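User: For documentation purposes, I need each entry recorded in a consistent format: the amino acid sequence on its own, followed directly by the corresponding structure tokens. There are two entries in this batch. Please keep commentary to a minimum and don't merge the entries.

Assistant: Recorded as requested. Entry 1:
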Amino acid sequence: MLIKMKKNITKDFIPLLISILLIIISAGMKFIGNYNLNFKHYIGLILISICVFLFFNFRKLYFYIFILTLLSGLLGFIDFFYINIQFEIGPISLNPLFLILIILFLTISKDSLNQVFPEKQNKPND
């Protein structure tokens, strides 16, 4: 039972770990390179720190906050990485890094999301 739980924690932690690594790289580039981080990066750091705490303590709340964090990054309200790549679709500007993280998060955490939210599973029509 404990081994199965550790595998789930490790697997579900991957998108959050990637986000943490991006923050570490950005902080390293700030100190090594001549890059300036702005308030969007610091807000991203705070939200990811909250997500790490929630991951280990309040798993259901973690799913909500992490997906909201990724969606706010997708729309450009926050950022993790020192390089800001965006593409525009009409008046909307999107960050592909966050799009990749959202897809990875939903793909990897699909089983855990079904366990946390059993009422949201597809039910056969009667």
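Entry 2:
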Amino acid sequence: MARAGEQIESVAGDLAGRCVDDVRYYTLTYGMTDEPAWDHGTAHVADYGIDLITSEGTTGITWTQYGASGYGLRFSRGPLLDGLPRAEFCSVAREPPWAAVLGERITAARVCWLDVTSGEREAATPTAVALRFAGGISIAVVCGSWNGPDRPVFPTGDDIVILWQPGTLPVLAPFLPGDLLGS
């Protein structure tokens, strides 16, 4: 695994054992409505990224360009605030699915890599991270473009999509392992 892959796995792995105290979604300031821009009922779409805030520190998750193959997840130790001059953010700790895991320990963080072919080149792209919690709940943070509640997320797009309902995974993210959110 290349150095970037090792860094991604390391930062994601550091989440295991931490308890989630708060979660922030970042959205870009366009198309504002009365409803939260991120709330789509079956999934949340934070078009720029999220911060997982724990007493041990904050981990930011957003998207970044991966060659000609599109976008993939980028993890940072620390909040995304510094690099987002035009983004707005809000706490979603009291919203599903986060309200159910607030204060719960993350037992595992699994990065899902997707092989993407662009022309003659194939590259492994970090497309999702699955967070499993002590209470048996799993939440997936996916890099992809939202296409609606009945159509698959386009993998390697420039949104961050949060999925937590195992039954919706085959429809919304058929490119990911079926056991990503458990059964």
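Summary note for entry 2:
The CA atoms of residues 69 and 121 lie 9 Å apart.
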